[in-house]
Each structure stands twice: as C-alpha cells, then as structure tokens.
Amino acid sequence: MTYRVPVRDAGLIAAVRAVVQRRYRDVHAVRNLTFQIAPGQVVGFLGRNGAGKTTTMKILAGILHPTSGRVRVLGQIPWRRQNQYLREIALIRGSQPIGDAPELTVLDSFRYQQVLYDIAEPHFKRNLAELSALLDLDRVLQRQVRALSLGERMRAGLALALVYRPKILFLDEPTIGLDVSAAKTVRTFIGEYAAQTGATVLLTSHSMTDVESLCPRLILVDDGAIAFDGRRNELSSAFAPTKLVRVSVTDDNPDLTPYGDVLRRDENHWLLRVDRDAVPEATSRILSRFAVADLSVEEPSLEDVIDQAYHRLRQVKDAG
Ligand SMILES: Nc1ncnc2c1ncn2[C@@H]1O[C@H](COP(=O)(O)OP(=O)(O)OP(=O)(O)O)[C@@H](O)[C@H]1O
C-alpha cells in the first residue's frame, strides 16, 4: 500500500507555489506483508510507530483500497464493502466511547444499531444480554448517553460496536489512554468475547499487558513487512539472544562477573544477563564454584524482547 503524499517547502512563497504546482512523494506503508489467520485465533499485530499496522487494519476492514496486493477475509475482498462482509467484521480504533447521539438513551443507541445491521430481535436480545453481562451495562441501558461517565461510555461503546456479533475483530489500540482498571476491563472483555463467540481477533497494542494476556501468536511488522510470525514464546529466541540468571550465594565476597553481564547486585544476590547458548555452562560453573542458595534461569520480559527486536530491526534498516 503506497500513500501519495503532497510535499512542499516551508514558508509563504512555497505555500503559494504548492497551490499551482503540486509535488508528491510516495510513502510505502505496507509491502511484502503475507499472513493467514485461522478462524478463532487471537493474534497480536505489533510493530514500531509507523510500521504499517493501522494501514493493514484499514485494508482488512475495507476502509482502504490497497495500491497492489491480494486480500481475502472470509472469502471476501474487503474494499468491495459488501453488506454481508461489513456485518461480519468490526474495526475498533482506540476505546471508541459511545456518544454520537447524546440525547438518546443507551438502549435507543443499541436499537438504532439493530436497525442499521438488520439484527433479528431474538439475536439482538441474546447479544445485548451477553454483552451487558460481560460489560456490566444493565444499570446504564435506560440512561441518556450524555449523563454517562467516560468509563460507562467506553463500556457501552464497546458493546455497541459488537452488538451484531461480528466474527472478526480488528482492534487497533483498544486500551490506549485508559486508566489501569478500564484497560483491564477491556482486556478481560476481549478475552471473554473471543472465548464465548469464537471470534477471530487481530489486535494492535503497544501495551505488553494486552499482548501477554490475550495473544498466543504474534505478527511483528516492520517498515511494512513481516519481521516475525510465530508463537509468543518463540519471539525471545528470535530476537533476544540472552536469558536472565538469578543467583543467591552464601560465599564471602563472591565474584560472578566472569559468567555474564551483571544487571543488578544486592549483596549476595546477583542478576546476570547470559547468552542463551552459554547458559548451561555458566550455571554449571557457578554451581560447582560457589555455595549456591538459589539459582533460576528466566526468559527476559516480553517488553524487553520487543524492545530488543525493535532495536535490532532499526540497526538492520540503518545498515541497509
Ligand atoms: N493517510 C496517510 N497519508 C500518508 N501517509 C500515511 C497515511 N497514513 C499513514 N501514513 C504513513 O504510512 C506509514 C504507516 O502508518 P500506519 O499508521 O499504518 O503505522 P502504525 O504501525 O499504525 O503506527 P502507530 O503505531 O504509530 O499507530 C507511516 O509512515 C505513516 O506516516
């Protein structure tokens, strides 16, 4: 997907010149991006700012027509925007609080959505009851939208976006800007919705808590191309070539510096960063040379792994 972006120099003269003589440059937002997602999977779609995630989501949701490439979702070409397709998907960007018609009650808004998406009454009642239970909406359904708190509007907005029970959710930063409790509500809801309905979810988020609690599979996109596609626990071996070794010893003045990079030392408790391949040898040497009270080997946190991945990808880009 290539965007054609107008360019102009700074200043008034350049602004006037740009009116009569437009210049453009191409921005390649997405290229070499190939992936498949099986029904029911919950997939984290990650990448640095500007990597191409939102552009991809918009293409999949039928908002953007890509300049080249082939996409099929549920057997449909998204940008044809067939009604049948639009009723099967939802694109939610940010937390999307309810609020288009503040005079209406929440239930009125749901009824309007029912008409828009042509939802049969029994399905509507079942979906609304399920969503109300998951998002604790019973007490707000009869209230005017304008009288709701932001948290209530956010929960109602989420339910409104899903009351037609889409099979595919494209979630673009659903917890951005939310406080800890609201983010947890949304996160828990997404997991429960997916489990209850069998929906397929593609989720972008810069929150590693979202990714860790929801996404067994990760697709890492960089500069519009796939940099990793696999299970979450495989990401560390792909991008973080080290593990953490935590050791407590009872010796006087122990020196563990030869066995790894010392990240932290608190008296006789050491935290070392050790190359993955060197971990067996380093730990067996430590065990044979010191009076070890405790030793554990840990994977780096997802945040560290992603951070290392982004650094590595930036280095590769700068070098190439
Ligand atoms: N409407 C647009 N016109 C021109 N360029 C655009 C447009 N939208 C996005 N871009 C460019 O395309 C690239 C990919 O943008 P995109 O929004 O898909 O990234 P992203 O991965 O979602 O980033 P973020 O994490 O910051 O939201 C960026 O270089 C961006 O500047």
UniProtKB/TrEMBL annotation:
The record gives the membrane topology as: Peripheral membrane protein
By its UniProt entry, which InterPro entries does this protein fall under?
Answer: AAA+_ATPase, ABC_transporter-like_ATP-bd, ABC_transporter-like_CS, ABC_transporter_ATP-binding, P-loop_NTPase
Q: Which GO terms describe its molecular function?
A: ATP binding; ATP hydrolysis activity
Annotated Gene Ontology cellular component terms: plasma membrane
What Gene3D superfamilies does the database record attribute to this sequence? P-loop containing nucleotide triphosphate hydrolases
Q: Entry's Pfam families?
A: ABC_tran
Keywords for this entry? Answer: Antibiotic resistance, ATP-binding, Nucleotide-binding, Transport
Record keyword Repeat present: no
Q: List where in the cell it is found.
A: Cell membrane
Primary localization: membrane
User: A GO term (biological process) for this protein?
Assistant: response to antibiotic
Q: Where is the ABC transporter domain?
A: 7-248
Name the chain's protein. ATP-binding cassette domain-containing protein
Q: From which organism does this entry originate?
A: Kribbella capetownensis
